[in-house]
Amino acid sequence: MRKYLMLLGIVLVTGTLMVISAGCGGSGTTTDTTAPAGNTTGTQGEVQTGVSVTIENFAFIPPTITIKKGGTVTWTNKDSAVHTATEDGGDFDTGDIAQNQSATLTFDEAGTFSYICTYHPNMKGTVIVK
Question: Which residues are in the EfeO-type cupredoxin-like domain (predicted)?
């Protein structure tokens, strides 16, 4: 399981870098916005400052993340449909994330933030900021 999570992390970072570098050429977009809070739990329970969430098969993977206050979350859409990551109370919203695009938010306040995709409200996720 640990090897799988490490491999998944490498794949997500590589994919994110590819999307960002595509954005430098004008063909991709990345949104960087400040949100209320942010932290991520690593494979052995350590809280991280940055985490990636993949949107695939109409789900946020992983659905729950824990990050450090001041940390970032990057959502990357692998579905053909447009998605968002929008906090239930409206404290943060990535805006539309098209296929193979990413959006990054910074979380500056501690708390637990539940979010959905506004187009597909059955898609649910949680960001825990410590």
Answer: 47-129
